[in-house]
């Protein structure tokens, strides 16, 4: 029987801050920021004539400045281009947690990069994440997600890119994202069907923190694990919005304790305080408790 790869790593991804790899000042500040992860961007935010310098910046950064406890991703240019292939070589040299592929539209986009990583003998810990940001990407998202169940695919999750999706569909940027919600939910559904993480899109107006907070609440309600950010001011609202809810955390502890009782051994369904609880909820509860513990530990270390 074939072995399938699924990324079940438990880690908070409430806030993934995108930072242009060309911006040395922004790179220098990362150690003091409380984001759960960093997306080092080699794509849209770096001018064509600056790509080499941006790669060099990352090579230096990853050699000298490890971000302990934070997830690191490098967003590259399309690997169908020479620039993208050079970016991928830099990724292999830097060894972040993941490479983030732009405009993924079909499973072969994942498999092609996975093959390159395998040929380069890149560590298994180097995962692939996919930007879903085109109409074709939305239409094919279930097939792309299924690639996570292919040997060696390395696929760990999706990041929504609404700026390109709006441009290609001509849906205007409006508060509430009313006409985008069906597409967003389609990506969440595909991710959950195959055990993947899924991150909500950036909010472009970083000065409108009230609007951003509302969008975070909406993303949380839709089932996203966190949000891609463009400014440090967005970190605290995102961390607050996507943190484990206190009531849900208390319930998770109750579920774990209930199934740990001797009389619950071998039972798939139990009665706990007048509610029927299935054993499958134990895995969800354990994950939530683990996420909360990681967040609390980071707070303690910063205190």
SS element count, helices: 12
Structural class, from secondary structure content?
Answer: alpha/beta
How helical, in percent, are the residues?
40-55%
Major β-sheet strand ordering:
1-2-3-4-5-6-7-8
How far do the termini sit from each other? 49 Å
Instruction: Provide mean pLDDT, rounded.
Output: 92
How is the biggest beta sheet arranged? Answer: 8 strands, parallel, barrel
The total beta strand count reads 10
Proportion of strand residues: 15-25%
- Write down the secondary-structure element order: EHEHEHEHEHHEHHEHEHHEEH
Which residues sit in consecutive blocks of at least 5 with pLDDT less than 50?
1-8
Considering the chains and any ligands shown, give keywords for the structure:
two-stranded antiparallel sheet, alpha/beta, 12 helices, disordered N terminus
């Amino acid at each position: 029987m074939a072995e399938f790869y699924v990324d079940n790593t438990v880690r908070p991804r409430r806030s993934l801050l995108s930072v242009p790899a060309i911006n040395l000042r922004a790179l220098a500040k990362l150690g003091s920021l409380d984001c759960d992860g960093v997306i080092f961007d080699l794509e849209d935010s770096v001018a064509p004539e600056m790509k080499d310098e941006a790669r060099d910046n990352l090579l230096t950064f990853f050699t000298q400045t490890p971000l302990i406890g934070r997830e690191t991703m490098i967003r590259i240019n399309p690997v169908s281009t020479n620039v993208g292939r050079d970016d991928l070589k830099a990724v292999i040299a830097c060894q972040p947690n993941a490479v983030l592929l732009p405009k993924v539209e079909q499973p072969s986009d994942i498999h092609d990069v996975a093959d390159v990583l395998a040929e380069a003998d890149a560590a298994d810990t180097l995962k692939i994440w996919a930007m879903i940001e085109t109409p074709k990407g939305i239409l094919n998202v279930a097939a792309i997600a299924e690639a996570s169940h292919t040997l060696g695919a390395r696929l760990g999750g999706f990041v929504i890119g609404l700026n390109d999706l709006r441009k290609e569909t001509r849906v205007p940027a409006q508060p509430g994202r009313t006409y985008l919600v069906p597409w967003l939910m389609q990506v969440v559904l595909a991710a959950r069907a195959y055990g993947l993480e899924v991150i909500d899109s950036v909010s472009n107006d970083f000065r409108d923190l009230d609007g951003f907070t509302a969008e975070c609440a909406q993303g949380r309600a839709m089932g996203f694990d966190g949000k891609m950010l463009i400014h440090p001011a967005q970190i605290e609202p995102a961390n607050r919005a996507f943190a484990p809810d206190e009531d849900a955390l208390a319930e998770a502890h109750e579920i774990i304790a209930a199934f740990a009782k001797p009389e619950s051994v071998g039972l798939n369904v139990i009665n706990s305080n007048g509610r029927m609880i299935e054993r499958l909820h134990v895995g969800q509860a354990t994950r939530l408790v683990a996420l909360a513990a990681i967040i609390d530990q980071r707070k303690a270390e910063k205190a």
